[in-house]
Amino acid sequence: MLIYNSLSHKKEEFIPVDNTVKLYSCGPTVYSYAHIGNLRTYVLTDWLKRVLIYNGYNLKHAMNITDVGHLTSDADSGEDKMEKAAKEQGKTAWEIAEHYAQVFFSDLKKLNTLPADIIAKATDHIQEDIALINELEKQGFTYRTSDGIYFDTSKFKEYGVLTGLSWEQLNNSLKGGARIELSEEKKNITDFSLWKFSPANEKRQMEWPSPWGVGFPGWHIECSAINLKYLADAFENDIFYPEKAKTIDFHTGGIDLLPIHHTNEIAQVEPITHKPFIKYWVHGEFLIIKGGRMAKSEGGGLTLSTLIEKGYDPLIYRYFLLNAHYRTKMEFDYEGLDAANNSLSSLRELVWNLKNKNDVSTDLDLSNYQKDFKEAVNDDLNLPKALSIVWTAIKEYKKQPEQYSSKKTLTMILDFDKVLGLDLDNWQPAEIPEEIKDLAEKRNQLRLEKKYAEADEIRIQIEKMGYSLKDNGSTIDIQKI
Ligand SMILES: [Zn+2]
Description:
Elements: E1 2-5, E2 10-13, E3 20-25, H1 36-54, E4 58-65, E5 71-73, E6 77-80, H2 81-89, H3 93-110, E7 118-121, H4 126-138, E8 142-145, E9 148-151, H5 167-176, E10 192-197, E11 215-217, H6 221-231, E12 235-236, E13 239-240, E14 248-254, H7 258-273, E15 278-284, E16 287-289, E17 292-293, H8 304-309, H9 314-321, E18 330-331, H10 334-355, H11 368-377, H12 383-399, H13 406-420, H14 434-448, H15 452-464, E19 467-472, E20 475-480
Parallel strand pairs: 3-4, 3-14, 4-7, 14-15, 16-18
Antiparallel strand pairs: 1-2, 5-6, 8-9, 9-10, 10-11, 12-13, 16-17, 19-20
Helix pairs in contact: 2-3, 4-6, 4-7, 6-7, 9-10, 11-12, 12-13, 14-15
Bound molecules: zinc ion.
C-alpha cells in the first residue's frame, strides 16, 4: 500500500510500526458547526481507515476534541474561541462545547464514518499537558513571558521539517510576509504558547492551576499529549515517561494545519523522546466554494444540515467526495451534488435488484475487477479511479446480466463498499403506498387483456401521484419520482 507522506513529500510504501496500526486525527474546535469543507477531512480519515482494514490491518484510532485554548488567531493572540462563543450565545463555555461536539458526532455518523476508538477532550487532559510542558521545561525548551510559557523553536534543530523549510527560512519568510501580531516578549516569530495565563483582570470560565500560574493550555499541546498517552504509550499510571514513547503510524488533518499546528505538535514531542513522533503525515486538501476557501472564520457556513434541509441524503455528499483525490482541491456546487445523487441512486437500485434476483447463471463472475480496485485504493487512496472501476464492472454486468451470477456480482459490489462506505447493503427503496401498488396491478391486468389505452391512463394517474413505472423485463418496478 502506497501513501503520500507530507514529511518526505513523496509516496511511500506503508510499513506498520507494529501489529496494531495507530492513527490520530485532529478533531474539531467545538465552538460552532463543522462546515462541509471540515467534514471532507474526516471522511478522508475514514477512507484511510477503511483501506487499512481492507488490507487486513488492525487499527487503533484516537481523535481529540478541542474544547479549550484555540484562540481566534492561530498565532497565540485574540480571544479563546470557546469563551467568545459562550459570551455571544449567552451560554457557558461547557454548554457550547457539549452542543457542538454532539452535532459533530451526529454528522460523522450520518456520513457513515467508522467511529474512533478513543475520543479525548482537551479539558480532560490538562494534567497530561502539564506533565509534557514540565518535561519540555526541564530539558530547556521553554521560556516565560508575561502572558504564558512559550516553546523556544530556535532550540529544536528540526523545527519546521513538515513545511520543507529550515528554522531560519521559516522565520525569515514570516518576517517578510504580512505583519503578525507578536507578543513583544516572544523571542522568535515561530515560538508558540504551551500554557497561557488567565488575564489578571478577567475570570475565565475554563482555567486550571499549574506550576506556572492559573491559566489554560495552548492549542497545540493537547494533540501531542493525547497522542503520547493513548497511541505512543508514554504515560503509565498518569506519569509521563518520554523515553517510553513509541512512534505512531499515521496522523491526519486538513492541509491548513500543517505549517503551524502539526509543525508544533512535532516540536513538543521529538526533542524529548528522541525518536520520530509520527511515521506518515496525511493531509487533505480544501473544498472550495465560489472561488474561496470554506473557512468558518471567512464566513463559509455550508453545513451538512444545510444539505439535508435541501433534500440531500448525507451519503450523497460522501459519494460526491469520491470524485476528487484527497490531495487535490475540490470545487463544491449543487450540479455536482445532483450528479452524485443520480449515480448513488443507480448504485443503490442495482444492489437492491441484485439482492432480489434469483441467480440465472453461475458461470461468469467479475472478480477480475477486484484486483484493479484494490490496486487503485492502495495507490495513495486513488478513490476516483476505484470508483471508475466499479462502474466499468457494472457496465460489463449490465451488457449481459444473464451471463453473470447475481450473487457473485452483489458480493463484489458490497466488498467494494467496505472501502467506499456508502452503506449500500442497508439501503431500501422508499415504501410504496398500497394505493399505488393496486393501481399498478390493475394496469398490469389491463395490459394482459390488451386494453392498452386504459392501461396508459392508469400509468398517467400513477405519475400524477408522484410515482413512475419502470419496465424491468419480467417485472414492473414502481419508483418515487
Ligand atoms: Zn491537532
